[in-house]
């Protein structure tokens, strides 16, 4: 896809590293960067820490063992002996969210005081990360001394995913600049054999992690148990040296009146080790501790206050501290947060279900309520959904003003997934708003509007403070207005939003910049559809300038795309192209999922390409836009597609196809004047081409829109239909203050030129053709000259005008030998899509061009070529001149077309 | 698909609740979990569940229909 490579050539991709936030805009969970602390009964094992010491010399280290084998604490113990910063990251189940993983990876490096440089961009989309960002990370690590040591704990949670592959890519390209330690329960999807063969892997596996009888004896000592050698042997045999098993043994034996007898009993028992021991140890805990352990099993991590909320007691702080001290069940994450040992979490949850069926939902509900007050919204939503409490969950989303996230492409998949479990029994405004948002986001208008209607009715009867719900409703109403092309509805929604906004706490509005940005975009889009260009421009400009990084990138992109369309309709293809490319660059900067916008900017680019007679490019842009907009039913998008496709078909001479494409396939509340204007002009052009002059002229008598673009088009067609005076009157009727762009003025000049040529006024015609060429040259507007027809050929070939057309419209200065009859043949019938290079590039210009193609900045090129920045700029200028372009992205594209690269 | 998963040790009734979709029979120091498995994803899910419960999988095999 040439467009995007070029579009990114000018600017850097991604978000600057400073001011990092989690891609969802939530604060990073600092507990994930904390090295778990070792309890007092932890037994340091020198043979293992010595082996781990080799990790400093190999790029990859893997501590791979079953649950409860003591992996995490072993690595934590080793780290404590090191005299250097270590980066710790506890991996979460981010199978589907590589962007989130890498954001945390970078933040973890930051938190450990070994940050990467600001040049490295942070992935803004939780669900993906671009190769470029990975390369940046790897490049930044190359040559670091000492190499950052990164521990990824619980790596099994992602080991089979794309993340493993990405991690290996970074490791491979970071040279010796990264030391990676994976703590995992299962084999990661790395090419371990290769690392092994190269001696680049330090590996500690289950067999090595298993306790030796000596170590087991020492561990039991720590618990105050002294056993004869053969008893320890038997115990190690029974537990296979499994750390968790031994620890539970010790705990259970401690509590029993005759520890030795108890351990004998355990040896003889044939139950599964963890199951038996856990039940034993749990049974020996005080009742309130048992209760606490069962209840917290529904949580990933917890702090005393949250646990008090679940147990309806006040002593969680003390109990958790004791449990941690005894090394039973809980691990400390720092900052007052704990988690259950992953092994026991599962078993405890099973016990909870057996002992207190039905309690699980209540616990999730209490957790959700606590997290709603003190934690992050996603956690609250997850527990609310687990409790099947949809009034609460939908209410939390709406009250947090987060409903716009269904439309920003960032969290929409996750929210959709979460709320897909919501059954029809949940009623009330909030669930209805959520249903409406889901349906509208998937362009299911009928269902969406029905839910929206229910929500509105519910809100009217609502007491209390429904401002957030009102604002959410206004946003969805604006979406519906846009999709149905009803400006009155959109204005009404915007008014409602303005009314309720002052009632909403400022921190909520600050947290959700996407909401106003989306609202303005929909308002602007609806206004544009209705032909209210200046009002549309006002709303869209405001939307395009909204702050908010990744959260608002989609509405900003869309607004830019719409603004590009307005420029195009005003006859400014250059400006339109610039805005459309900027819109696409913006989306790529944040590496958003591609099918998130409507693709309007691609359609504008396609229309611009038709004006330049780059028909192949126009076609591929339309195809790309179609792929993006498969599910979308958006009036402006449909009309934009009609515009680009109909013009392309006309340019190719497919009149039937042009008529078929000119009608946007949407049904709307009001008609769009510009969409109709286009339809009219295309139909008229087709009638004319097929010889029905009268019908063609008739169609143009009443234009639905007084856009200069259509007026000039109409004038051209009427001139071609033989109505010269009517054509000139039309042009004269254009208000002087409308100031249309070159695409309009060039065509107007050509109509006048043709009229003059018909009168026999060659001098005026030539002057007007020259004027048109001057206006068109910079924008490379070839289409108007091709559409003009045969009469223009002699003018383009004539001496005083020819230089203006040479190089971009007709072949450049032909060699003298062909200057005869062949040289006078103008290329208008089918000019080459790319112009001929006027002048050979110098060697230095070639070097600079290659730098451009590698997306290097001017400074980087200067450094690379040992030139001053100013010299590079001089080369750039002459390069642009020779390639007849204005920007570096165009230069690269043109150079590729001409096979200079 | 029907599978049986053989794990070391006798599983308690409580722990067996972690596999509500499977039947269970205890024999000679081992527990055999068996029943129909929906697809590969389910199968790997069962294995992961064994792992997170600290069970030793001794054998796993597909049974004739």
Automatic annotation (TrEMBL), chain A:
Residues 815-834 are annotated as: Disordered. Residues 815-828 have a biased composition (Low complexity). GO terms for biological process: regulation of DNA-templated transcription. It comes from the Bacteria. GO terms for molecular function: ATP hydrolysis activity; DNA binding. Pfam families: AAA_22, GerE, WHD_MalT. InterPro entries: AAA_22 (IPR049945), P-loop_NTPase (IPR027417), Sig_transdc_resp-reg_C-effctor (IPR016032), TPR-like_helical_dom_sf (IPR011990), Tscrpt_reg_LuxR_C (IPR000792), WH-like_DNA-bd_sf (IPR036388), WHD_MalT (IPR059106). Keywords: DNA-binding, Transcription, Transcription regulation. This is LuxR family transcriptional regulator.
TrEMBL record, chain B:
It comes from the Bacteria. This is Uncharacterized protein. It comes from Streptomyces griseorubiginosus.
């Amino acid at each position: 896809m040439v467009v995007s490579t070029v579009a990114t050539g000018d600017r850097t991709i991604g978000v600057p590293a400073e001011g990092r936030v989690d891609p969802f805009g939530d604060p990073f969970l600092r507990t994930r960067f904390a090295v778990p602390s070792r309890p007092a009964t932890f037994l340091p094992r020198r043979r293992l820490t010595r082996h781990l010491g080799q990790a400093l010399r190999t790029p990859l280290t893997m501590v791979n063992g079953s649950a409860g084998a003591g992996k995490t604490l072993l690595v934590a113990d080793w780290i404590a002996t090191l005299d250097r910063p270590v980066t710790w990251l506890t991996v979460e189940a981010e199978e589907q969210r590589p962007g989130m993983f890498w954001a945390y990876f970078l933040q973890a490096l930051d938190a450990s005081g070994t940050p990467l440089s600001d040049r490295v961009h942070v992935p803004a989309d939780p669900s993906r990360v671009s190769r470029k960002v990975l390369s940046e990370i790897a490049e930044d690590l190359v040559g670091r001394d000492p190499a950052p040591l990164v521990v990824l704990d619980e790596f099994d949670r992602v080991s089979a995913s794309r993340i493993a592959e990405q991690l290996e890519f970074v490791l491979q390209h970071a040279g010796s600049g990264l030391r990676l330690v994976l703590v995992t329960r299962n084999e990661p999807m790395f090419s371990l054999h290769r690392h092994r063969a190269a001696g680049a892997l330090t590996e500690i596996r289950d067999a090595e992690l298993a306790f030796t009888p000596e170590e087991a004896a020492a561990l039991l000592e720590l618990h105050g148990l002294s056993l004869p050698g053969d008893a320890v042997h038997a115990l190690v045999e029974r537990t296979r040296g499994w750390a968790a098993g031994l620890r539970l043994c010790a705990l259970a034996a401690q509590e029993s009146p005759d520890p030795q007898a108890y351990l004998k009993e355990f040896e003889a028992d044939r139950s599964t080790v963890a199951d038996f021991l856990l039940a034993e140890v749990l049974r020996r805990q005080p009742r309130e501790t048992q209760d606490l352990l069962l209840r917290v099993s529904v949580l990933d991590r917890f702090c005393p206050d949250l646990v008090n909320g679940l147990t309806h007691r006040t002593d969680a702080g003390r109990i958790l501290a004791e449990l941690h001290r005894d090394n039973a069940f809980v691990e400390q994450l720092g900052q007052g947060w704990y988690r259950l040992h992953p092994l026991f979490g599962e078993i405890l949850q099973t016990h909870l279900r057996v002992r207190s069926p039905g309690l699980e939902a209540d616990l999730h509900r209490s957790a959700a309520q606590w997290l709603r007050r003190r934690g992050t919204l996603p956690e609250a939503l997850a527990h609310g959904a687990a409790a099947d409490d949809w009034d609460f969950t939908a209410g939390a989303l709406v009250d947090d003003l987060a409903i716009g996230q269904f439309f920003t492409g960032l969290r929409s998949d996750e929210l959709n997934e979460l709320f897909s479990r919501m059954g029809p029994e949940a009623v009330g405004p909030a669930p209805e708003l959520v249903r409406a948002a889901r349906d509208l986001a998937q362009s299911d208008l009928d269902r969406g509007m029905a839910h929206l209607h229910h929500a509105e009715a519910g809100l009217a009867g609502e007491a209390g403070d429904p401002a957030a719900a009102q604002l959410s409703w206004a946003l969805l109403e604006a979406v519906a207005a846009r999709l149905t092309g009803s400006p009155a509805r959109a204005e009404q929604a915007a008014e409602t939003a303005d009314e309720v906004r002052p009632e909403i706490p400022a921190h909520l509005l600050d947290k959700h910049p996407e909401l106003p940005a989306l609202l303005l975009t929909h308002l602007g889009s609806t206004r544009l559809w209705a032909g209210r260009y200046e009002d549309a421009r006002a709303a869209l400009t405001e939307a395009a300038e909204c702050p908010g990084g990744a959260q608002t990138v989609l509405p900003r992109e869309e607004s830019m795309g719409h603004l590009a369309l307005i420029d195009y309709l005003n006859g400014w293809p250059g400006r339109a192209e610039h805005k459309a490319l900027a819109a696409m660059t913006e989306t790529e900067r944040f590496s958003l999922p591609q099918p998130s916008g409507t693709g309007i900017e691609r359609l504008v680019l396609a229309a611009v390409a038709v004006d330049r007679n780059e028909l192949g490019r126009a076609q591929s842009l339309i195809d790309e836009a179609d792929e993006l907009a498969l599910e979308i039913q958006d009036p402006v998008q449909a009309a934009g597609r009609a515009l680009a496709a109909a013009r392309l078909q006309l340019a190719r001479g497919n009149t039937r196809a042009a008529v078929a494409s000119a009608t946007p396939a949407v049904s709307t509340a009001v008609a769009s004047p510009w969409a109709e204007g286009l339809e009219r002009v295309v139909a008229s052009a087709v009638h004319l081409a097929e010889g029905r002059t009268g019908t063609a002229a008739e169609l143009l008598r009443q234009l639905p829109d007084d856009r200069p673009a259509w007026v000039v088009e109409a004038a051209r067609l009427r001139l071609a239909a033989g109505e010269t005076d009517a054509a000139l009157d039309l042009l004269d009727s254009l208000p002087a203050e409308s100031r249309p762009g070159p695409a309009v003025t060039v065509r107007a000049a050509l109509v006048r030129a043709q009229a003059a040529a018909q009168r026999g006024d060659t001098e005026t015609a030539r002057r007007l053709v020259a004027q048109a060429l001057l206006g068109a040259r910079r924008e490379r507007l070839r289409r108007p000259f091709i559409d003009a027809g045969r009469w223009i050929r002699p003018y383009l070939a004539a001496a005083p005008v020819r230089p203006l057309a040479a190089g971009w419209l007709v072949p450049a200065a032909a060699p003298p030998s062909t200057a005869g009859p062949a040289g006078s043949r103008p290329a208008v019938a089918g000019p080459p899509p790319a112009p001929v290079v006027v002048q050979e590039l110098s060697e230095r210009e070639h070097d600079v061009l290659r730098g451009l193609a590698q997306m290097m900045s001017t400074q980087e090129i200067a450094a690379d070529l040992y030139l001053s920045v100013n010299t590079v700029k001089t080369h750039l200028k002459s390069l642009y001149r020779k390639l007849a372009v204005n920007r570096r992205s165009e230069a690269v594209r043109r150079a590729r077309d001409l096979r200079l690269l | 698909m029907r599978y049986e998963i053989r794990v070391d040790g006798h599983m308690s009734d409580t722990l067996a609740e972690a596999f509500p979709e499977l039947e269970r029979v205890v024999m000679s120091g081992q527990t055999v979990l068996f029943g129909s498995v929906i697809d590969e994803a389910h199968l790997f899910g069962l294995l992961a569940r064994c792992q997170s419960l600290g069970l030793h999988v001794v054998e796993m095999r597909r049974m004739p229909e």
